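F.,

This is the one I mentioned.
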């Protein structure tokens, strides 16, 4: 019972961090859309605690969409070996811990991450929901929830953040969750304003 309560509180807290406001804003987005492209962006590996395949799908779609929008992108595939040990792993781990626990984007750590990777910004994706369920009226739906935070590396400023959900009703044939995620991420990348 106690573990369940702690887990529930952690979910509420992380939702508040991602939404940038109260825990009741789980479905809303808040953003500070930049006037210009942040330049070279590193897409960090997606946080997807219960579904590694969902995380990989989100990463691939994000990189593809951002590259198609003419953003200069470093993919998680390239980042993973760099994050598997040494200073960068320590810096990124400490930065993400502070952001998650204290809702504090540490400008010193952010700047060091930017200098180490030679990037202007980094994107932190999180899979909030990935699956099939039913609506209250009993209709079957494919539902995706994704959170994104775009950080300016040299200052640690949050350029854009949102948690958004997309669902698609179906009768007999289940839509592929990756297709639903692509539709959602396309909207989010457009709103983010990372194009050159």
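My design for it:
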């Amino acid at each position: 019972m106690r573990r369940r309560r702690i887990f529930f509180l952690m979910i509420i807290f992380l939702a508040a961090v991602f939404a940038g406001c109260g825990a009741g804003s789980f479905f809303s987005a808040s953003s500070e859309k930049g006037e210009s492209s942040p330049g070279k962006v590193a897409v960090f590996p997606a946080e997807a605690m219960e579904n590694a395949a969902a995380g990989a799908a989100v990463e691939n779609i994000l990189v593809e969409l951002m590259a198609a929008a003419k953003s200069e992108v470093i993919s998680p595939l390239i980042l993973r070996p760099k994050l598997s040990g040494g200073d960068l792993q320590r810096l990124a781990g400490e930065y993400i811990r502070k952001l998650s626990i204290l809702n504090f984007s540490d400008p010193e750590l952010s700047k060091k991450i930017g200098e180490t990777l030679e990037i202007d910004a980094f994107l932190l994706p999180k899979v909030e929901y990935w699956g099939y369920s039913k609506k209250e009226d009993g209709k079957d739906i494919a539902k995706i929830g994704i959170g994104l935070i775009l950080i300016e590396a040299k200052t640690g400023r949050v350029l854009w953040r949102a948690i958004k959900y997309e669902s698609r009703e179906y009768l007999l044939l289940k839509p592929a969750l990756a297709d639903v995620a692509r539709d959602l991420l396309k909207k989010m990348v457009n709103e983010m304003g990372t194009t050159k």
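The chain has six helices and six strands.

Talk soon.
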